């Protein structure tokens, strides 16, 4: 039932978000929702960054339409295959199990998106303003870097390239994937792997946030999701390496930009208060 429609996946994602926020804070998840709305209404910085983040996520959704209009027909899949050969096929054959497949699909389809939303909720609930801003910057950086590669360095998913020998195990659990989920994920949008880069980003932020529980959750999730991109026959090893580097870059730049933004904001407020004091 879970993988029969996007409605089922959306419900599962909502439940997962609530559970992850509770695990990350040990507080009522509804408090995070209230604080999120409050932050949007009271923090211009967060409002602007959140708006930009949503816009770039929507831009990624329409990237396929832009790609079709470009009339650009390069394919770098054979080159990637020449670098790594049958790595994915060998991994699939070694680990293939009727128990592992549904777990991998759940993390790839549900946990991946849920953890992004839940991380924002945890940081807001913790009143961790640096990481609330940092996660917005980091997601923006991830997609800003990845989308040009999807447009001009297209690499097809491993299973779709016959010489790879890999199978698309996603269909064993989610038979309607191509009809239900494919419009959100282009077949040749492989390099770099955003599932890897976003997972690594959330892991680094979680580990550096000071929230030990969230650090553990994001680390376990990143490991399982990265394993899943291979196990399900979707991404190449090359995609994962590039995604890891992008995730490390985006997370650390996100923290840096957040600290600089809040420092500048604090300096401006102090300067304004100083002027008010002088006028009095």
Largest sheet descriptor = none
Structural class: mainly alpha
Radius of gyration: 20 Å
Distance between the ends = 68 Å
CATH topology: Vanadium-containing Chloroperoxidase, domain 1
CATH secondary-structure class? Mainly Alpha
Q: How many discrete structural domains?
A: 1
How do the SSEs run, as a string of H and E?
Answer: HHHHHHHHHHHHH
Number of continuous helical runs: 13
Low-confidence stretches: 267-280
CATH architectural group: Up-down Bundle
The quaternary state of the protein chains shown equals single chain
In helices, the fraction of residues equals: over 70%
Shape: globular
Report the count of strand segments: 0
The proportion of strand residues reads: under 5%
Overview of the structural elements:
76% of the residues lie in helices and 0% in strands. It has 280 residues and is mainly alpha-helical. The chain has one domain: Vanadium-containing Chloroperoxidase, domain 1, CATH 1.20.144. The model is unreliable at 267-280 (pLDDT under 50). It is a multi-pass membrane protein. Residues 94-250 form the Inositolphosphotransferase Aur1/Ipt1 domain. The chain crosses the membrane at residues 6-24, 45-62, 99-123, 130-153, 186-207, 214-234, 240-262.
List the keywords.
13 helices; 280 residues; 76% helix; globular; single chain; 0% strand; Vanadium-containing Chloroperoxidase, domain 1; mainly alpha
Task: Spell out the blueprint of helices and strands.
Layout lengths: L5 H20 L3 H14 L1 H18 L1 H8 L6 H8 L2 H9 L4 H26 L3 H24 L17 H4 L3 H4 L13 H15 L3 H20 L5 H43 L1
Helix pairs in contact: 1-7, 1-12, 2-3, 2-7, 3-8, 7-8, 7-11, 7-12, 8-11, 8-13, 11-12, 11-13
């Amino acid at each position: 039932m879970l993988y029969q429609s996007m409605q089922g996946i959306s419900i599962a994602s909502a439940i997962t978000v609530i559970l992850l926020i509770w695990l990350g804070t040990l507080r009522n998840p509804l408090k995070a929702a209230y604080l999120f709305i409050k932050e949007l209404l009271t923090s211009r910085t967060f409002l602007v960054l959140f708006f930009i983040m949503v816009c770039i996520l929507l831009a990624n959704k329409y990237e396929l339409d832009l790609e079709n209009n470009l009339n650009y027909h390069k394919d770098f899949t054979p080159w990637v295959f020449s670098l790594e050969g049958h790595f994915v096929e060998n991994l699939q054959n070694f680990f293939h199990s009727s128990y592992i497949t549904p777990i991998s699909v759940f993390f790839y389809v549900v946990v991946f998106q849920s953890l992004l939303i839940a991380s924002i909720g945890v940081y807001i609930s913790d009143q961790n303003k640096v990481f609330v801003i940092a996660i917005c910057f980091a997601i923006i950086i991830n997609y800003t870097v990845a989308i040009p590669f999807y447009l001009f360095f297209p690499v097809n998913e491993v299973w779709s390239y016959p010489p790879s020998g890999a199978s698309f195990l996603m269909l064993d659990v989610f038979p309607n994937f191509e009809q239900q989920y494919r419009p959100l994920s282009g077949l040749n949008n492989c390099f770099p792997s955003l599932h890897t880069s976003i997972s690594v980003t959330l892991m680094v932020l979680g580990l550096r946030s000071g929230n030990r529980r969230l650090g553990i959750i994001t680390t376990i999730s990143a490991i399982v999701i990265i394993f899943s991109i291979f196990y399900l026959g979707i991404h190449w090893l090359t995609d994962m390496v590039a995604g890891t580097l992008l995730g490390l870059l985006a997370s650390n730049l996100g923290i840096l930009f957040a600290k600089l933004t809040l420092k500048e904001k604090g300096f401006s407020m102090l300067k304004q208060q100083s002027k008010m004091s002088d006028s009095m």
